Amino acid sequence: MKALVYHGPGQKAWEDVPDATVVEPTDVVVRVDTTTICGTDLHILHGDVAAVTDGRILGHEAVGTVTAVGDAVKGFGVGDRVLVPAITKCGRCEYCQRGMPSHCQTVGGIGWIFGHLIDGTQAELVRVPYADTSLYAVPENVTNEQAIFLADSLPTGYEVGVLAGAVRPGDTVAVVGAGAVGLAAILTTGLWGAARVIAIDSNKFRLEKALEFGATDVFEAGQSAASDVRALTDGLGVDVAIEAVGYPETLLTAASLVRPGGTIANIGVHGVPVELPMQDMWIQNVKLTMGLVDTVSIPTLLKMVASGRIPAEKMGTHSFTFDQMDEAYGVFGNAAANAALKVIITPA
Ligand SMILES: NC(=O)c1ccc[n+]([C@@H]2O[C@H](COP(=O)([O-])OP(=O)(O)OC[C@H]3O[C@@H](n4cnc5c(N)ncnc54)[C@H](O)[C@@H]3O)[C@@H](O)[C@H]2O)c1
Ligand SMILES: [Zn+2]
Ligand SMILES: [Zn+2]
Question: Which among 10, 107, 187, 234 is most buried, taking Cβ atoms within 10 Å?
């Protein structure tokens, strides 16, 4: 089979590798019909993720068809159309039982293993461990181009942003960073009845997208963003401020927008320490949440996509085939210049 193989910082190749096979009785093999690229894949290529070593197949998002099934697998058979999510889970360990498979102890202490600790989904075939507890059947009326965004971006914006931020009916929500994840949060705040959703981004194209995804107001990032938001909220600030970039300054922006009693929901992956103004924050009774996505909201999101409540297909802006993997990375890696959000990659 062919797959996108990591060969150290800045080096990757779409090349021949041995076919993925069933190794454990709880495995299945999935033929990848649709995959995509995540910002995390770019971090890996920059050499930021030490656990990813030379020879690893990249990717942690796929929709595909089961082609082989281990003896212990009960819930899936050859030919089933399935969603392969970013998180793999045993379903039985302490963290899985607590609904936190992001820390599944059985698969290695962290649920994100594809394209990280084991070979990933940017390939013609992928081996999926703990298939019964990890895979999701895709409903007939949900397309591959919709389901693919439920593997990572949509559950991340929803779980780590909207649910962790505890958005309630009538709330005013600010989302700092309108990339795929921030837009996923914007797309799903409405499900909890947010009255006003304010998007803040440094990129005008992303702000246009934010309006398409359901934002009621948009502001360009900068000095005046906090005062703009205060002016819009009777000087109070927002109930929930979602951070979806991952820089110290964007978390500080989110913190500056929240009103007393509100919640700052940090989604961004941070690479350096952030100094928070605790001397001002303590008296505000604010909460700060953070975490790795569990992808446990996928069944809910699949139903919302199937019923037409969540237009997940809006996330895909560009399509490529497997042999255009380099072009796909080129466009996604320069998303702002290419007016790109997420790319869709298919066999042909
Ligand atoms: N917690 C999790 O489980 C989890 C999962 C997936 C992704 N993430 C993280 O979520 C974050 C967003 O991911 P993404 O795929 O949407 O990334 P992205 O690069 O597509 O989007 C980031 C957005 O932030 C904007 N931006 C950059 N600098 C800004 C600034 N100073 N002020 C305002 N906006 C600014 C960009 O224009 C862009 O629209 C990343 O940090 C990613 O690593 C976290
Ligand atoms: Zn990802
Ligand atoms: Zn587990």
Answer: 187
The ligand minimizing its distance to the Cα of 130 is 3
Pocket test for ligand 1, best of 150, 153, 159, 181 (most atoms within 8 A of CB): 181
CA distance 346 to 298: 22
Ligand 1 centroid – CA 157 distance (Å)? 10
- Type of residue found at 80: D
Q: What is the pLDDT of residues 38-53, one digit of tens each?
A: 999 999 999 989 999 9
Ligand nearest to the backbone CA of 185: 1
Counting from 1 in the atom list of ligand 1, the atom nearest the Cα of 43 is 43
DSSP-assigned letter for residue 162: I
Measured CA to CA, the distance from residue 226 to residue 256 in angstroms comes to 7
Q: Which atom of ligand 1 is nearest to the CA of 153?
A: 6
Residues with CB under 5 A from ligand 2 (ion): 38, 40, 152
Question: Is-contact 229 198, C-beta < 8 A?
Answer: yes
Q: Region 156-183: what's the mean pLDDT?
A: 98
Residue 159 CA: which ligand 1 atom is closest? 3
Structure-token match 């009621």, residue found: 216
Q: How far apart are CA 180 and CA 163, in angstroms?
A: 17
**340/329 Cα distance (integer angstroms):** 11
Nearest to residue 108, comparing CAs of 35, 50, 51, 47?
Answer: 51
> CA 248 from chain center: how many Å?
20
pTM, two decimal places: 0.96
pLDDT at 75 over 90: yes
- What are the boundaries of each domain within the chain? 2-152+295-346, 156-289
Q: What is the CATH number of domain 2-152+295-346?
A: 3.90.180.10
Using the mean position of ligand 1's atoms as its centre, give its distance from the Cα of residue 186 in Å: 13
Q: What distance in angstroms lies between residue 40's CA and the mean position of ligand 2's atoms? A: 5
Q: Is the CATH number 3.30.2310.20 carried by domain 156-289?
A: no
